[in-house]
Amino acid sequence: MVLQLIRLELLKSMRSTSFAKSALVAIFLAFLAIVLLAYVLLLGIVLKDVLEKVLESQDAYATLSGGLIYFFLFEFMYRYFTQQLPVIEMERFLHLPISKSKIIHFLLGRSFISPLTLIVPLLFGPFAIREVLPRFGDVAAISWIASVILTSWSLHWLMLWFKQKFEDSLMGIGIVFAVLLLGAGSNYLGWYNLGEILRPVFDWSLTSPLPVLIMLGVFVGMYQLAFMYYRSNAYLEDLTEEENIRFVNQELGFLSRFGLAGEFANLEWKLIIRHKKPRTYLMLAGFFLLYGLIFYTNPQYKTEEGFNHLFVFVGSFITGIFMLQYGQLFLSWNSANFDFFLQKREGVEALVMGKYLLFVVVSVLCLLASIPYAYFGWDILLIHVAAFFFNMGVVMHMVVYLSLWKPKPMDLNKGAMFNYEGVGIAQFLMIIPMMVAPYAIYLPFALIFSQYIGLVAMAIAGMAGIIAFKPLSKLSVKRVLNNRYEISSSFRQEI
Amino acid sequence: MIDIQGLKKQYKSTVVLDIPELFIPKSECFGLVGNNGAGKTTLFRIILDLVRATEGNVRIDEEDVSQTENWKWKVGAYLDEHMLLSYLTPDEYFEALRKIYRLSEDDLKLHLARFEELFNGEILGKKKYIRDLSKGNLKKVGIAAAMMGNPEVVMLDEPFENLDPSSQNRLKRLVLHEKENSQVTFLISSHDLNHVTDICDRIVLLEKGNVIKDIKEKAIMVDELNAYFGT
Questions:
Q1: Residue B91 lies in a domain
Q2: Residues A39/A45, Cβ–Cβ less than 8 Å
Q3: Neighbour count for residue A470 (Cβ, 10 Å)
Q4: Residues of A with CB under 8 A from a CB of B
Q5: Is residue B46 a part of any domain in this protein?
Q6: What is the pLDDT of residue A244?
Q7: Which of A9, A163, A363, B209 could potentially form a cystine with B17 if both were Cys, beta carbons 3.0 to 4.6 Å apart?
Q8: InterPro entries, from UniProt (chain A) (predicted)?
């Protein structure tokens, strides 16, 4: 029976149209996963040296044990954002004469086969061999690594339960933020040292097998928790979450002033806040506003005069991230109802214009929200303004034009992280001109004259693009219209 | 009203639609029947310029549909869910359409009042997205949307499918009423021979992309179709 299920799973992924079409993307992703895991392993091997040399720690083991809790908080976060829920698969099995428990055991088990499971063994395994083994003996090393791995794997089941129960609710977001604050706040504010609280547990595992047994109990308990929750909620109505319509009912009323394009921009706004995937993209744009804090405050990037060239990149990211991310999949967002726009007079023009309008609005908001960065120097504000103009005038048109190269359909209700639906080669290659373009204008002027001239050049290039908005946007509209049959027939296919 | 000349649709070497000539005059109720895969939906899609014709063209009031867009004012259609904005509630969807068709709020009210019976109190004023509606209610929303903006042509693909028997009758009455009062041209494809012969003045039977019967006499419609389908 289980074999049969496994066979069905394999067939499903082999035969899905997106697999055949984007086999290259799949290979690329697999390659990426292997590379990332290899990096994790490499980091694991040199972890001892990193702790001793970079952090100048006398006792690598003590430092690591003290920091483990932060690692697990971090793991909680990345698991929250990347881990996929297996329930979506359940629908097609529920009506069959297979017991629910069996299905759920299978789905839970399958979710465990993931690169995330390997991160902790790869990261801390080598450390156990190089540091714990020589100092505390082989039994201690095995016991220590076992309890660390079991902690991580317990988080896997905990997260399956947590995400299913709280996903998309305010409660869930609240808890995630609380975890973030717990990690960040404890040491900075000096209230308590979180690391010291949990350290004895791992120290204890060096001398006693009890912590391993306890963690094993927790591991099994968490699995039971997830299993029981899924088991008792294995009904179709529970799988599809009821959204609270009140939260997502806001309109951007002022957009209506821009005619039909404005109306469509308004519809697009509703599309964004009512689907999981675009909502995450919008949230990311919010998070990326904080991106500057990493760079602008870092003394490593301080220069004698002027500013670091890298800041241009940071600036264009902060003011344009939504456009870059959302724009990548320009038409795929409307894949479920593209015929609606085709069937309306001037519908496609208005759709494309509405999207432009939305990009401009969000970018302006990002620019305004980033004004406080002026605290770190007026240069930064100048960079942001120049980058904003450049984004509006040049990058926006590039994103749209490139994204119209074979758009693919996608399901907007799946999560955004590691969801490569709708992503084709174009979306991967696109990022290159996006990163190069600002520098292609900025660098020559900055190196020959001065950095500020470089910024002015960027702004002027952007202005030129803004002035030429009409013909440039017509180009994109024309491209959609010329390819309308191909686009709409590919959107009508099953994903 | 609709003039089809030398229309051909080919996927690689298979011809899925081949209509040398077909004319649909104004205010006719045109029924399209045929087995699965006969090309009914493809024909509708080509008329709406959603699919490219391999050869030939479709003209609506002398306008080639693949060249211009003005005809879109005159044509309302509901083929499948791709034509709905499923992330809106029905009220929001009609409101969005109202703005697109530049109607006044009273126009919209009048329009929806005509569908009151068909909606049966289950569509409007409910806090439910279109994507969460049942298949029958989805269809009702689509049909009401297709008839918005006083179109001269309304195209419906399988309008009776998924509707309950009383809704099917209400829809029939609605179509007859529109045809009588506003001279609307209806293009309806259906597998339900009784309904389609009831409301349509003319039935065209498609088989593997070819028009094999074009019946304009009400009296013989039912018998001819029953003979073909073996029912």
A1: yes
A2: no
A3: 8
A4: 243, 245, 256, 260, 263, 267, 270-271, 274-275, 336-340, 342-347, 412, 484-485, 488-489, 491-492
A5: no
A6: 47
A7: B209
A8: DUF5687
